[in-house]
């Protein structure tokens, strides 16, 4: 016999060594890196209707296109300006009273 899902169920899991929190609710799944608020959400209706597969394919396509675009627009690092030569420091005048000023 199965238990009806009527409240949140949270579990911690490790994906490639990184900790994540999986929240299973009556609305769907929510996977978030541990200590963060934003993550991946998947609604049960999207999963059943096939929208989830379509959204995954679209996101993968967009991610690939943006990485290609970023690679094409990588600029060469700017050459740092040469440092200006520093003039030698002038010796400070002595504050001692000399025989002339007394």
Task: Give a structural overview.
The protein is α+β, with helices and mostly antiparallel strands and 102 residues long. It has a domain at 9-71. The chain is built from two helices and four strands; from the N terminus they run E-E-E-E-H-H. It has a four-stranded antiparallel sheet. It is elongated, with a radius of gyration of 32 Å. The relative contact order is 0.08. The mean pLDDT is 78.
Keywords summarizing the entry:
4-stranded antiparallel beta sheet, alpha+beta, 4 strands, 2 helices, 102 residues
What's the SSE blueprint?
Layout: E1 9-15, E2 18-24, E3 28-33, E4 40-43, H1 44-49, H2 51-72
Antiparallel strand pairs: 1-2, 2-3, 3-4
Q: What order do the helices and strands follow? A: EEEEHH
**Biggest β-sheet: strands ordered side by side in the sheet:** 1-2-3-4
The biggest beta sheet, please? 4 strands, antiparallel
- Round the Cα radius of gyration to an integer and report it: 32 Å
The total strand number stands at: 4
Low-confidence stretches: none
Overall mean pLDDT stands at 78
Shape: elongated
Percent helix range: 25-40%
